[in-house]
Amino acid sequence: MAAPMEAWDRQFHPGAAPFGNFINYYSFNPPEKRIRFLPEDLLNIISYSGRKKNATVLDIGCNSGDLTVALYMHLKKQHLDKKEQGSSKMCLASADENDQDISSNPAAIEPDNTVAIKVLGCDIDDTLITRANESNLHPESISFHRMDFMCDASRSSNLTEFLSRHSETSGRFDLVCCFSLTMWIHLQHGDAGLHKFLKEASLLSRFLLVEPQPWKCYKSAVRRVRKVGIENSWHFKELNIRDKVEEDIINYLTSTCQMELVRTLGETHWERKLFLFRNATGVSDTQS
């Protein structure tokens, strides 16, 4: 019986997540560790101060969806706060002017600042996506799909269908999030794969939020795998992008992908920085 138990232990060991698809990820890295760094006015930023009436968000590598939901709630909170503030101001103005019966005309106090938030979370792991859908309390606003982002056909079919259901997209999401994902793409697909990922994510986004893992995280991941004795197809030994991986990601996004670094949002307790980029192409058409 020892051998089957050892195999079972290896299956659920942290080293047994070659794509970063940990089954208990948010138990050791809860959503609030990232959410606390997001701008309070993030919805305002990606919707251009409410000029866009639909805000679409893509969370790549969403795992079981906890962070995806927390991101949605962060955006929704700002939207609700904005509506409440707008309603209060209009109520006061109407009361001061005393030129209409507010109670008989509710529309008079309702500001035109409605932004519909639509979020898509995707992950390569079927089990995690099933868990995300089962626990989803906001199916009208959040969707979860199984998708291999690095597969052109899978990416195109899933994202094109989602974007086609929402206006004002122009084939792009208003915000694309890549939380602690770049290392796994890099290990699985090599230097060229990392650059392809960054390019495709940029093409799909108006704003891009990236939390890259520094090189020390790569070495820790390799040690975990060796300790458990699990085989994988990682390209670790072949990687040329190493010690300055974060710097390379920023340089590639800004020089090749035509992205602008808006700001560094902060650094998590795992010493991972969150960077917010803006697409330098096709942005002004939404602001006009």
Automatic annotation (TrEMBL):
It is an enzyme of class 2 (transferase). Keywords: Methyltransferase, S-adenosyl-L-methionine, Transferase. One of its GO terms (biological process) is methylation. It comes from the Eukaryota. SUPFAM superfamilies: S-adenosyl-L-methionine-dependent methyltransferases (SSF53335). Its EC number is 2.1.1.-. GO terms for molecular function: O-methyltransferase activity; RNA methyltransferase activity. GO terms for cellular component: cytoplasm. Residues 40-282 form the Bin3-type SAM domain. Transmembrane segments: none annotated. Belongs to the methyltransferase superfamily. This is RNA methyltransferase. It comes from Acanthaster planci. The gene is LOC110973062.
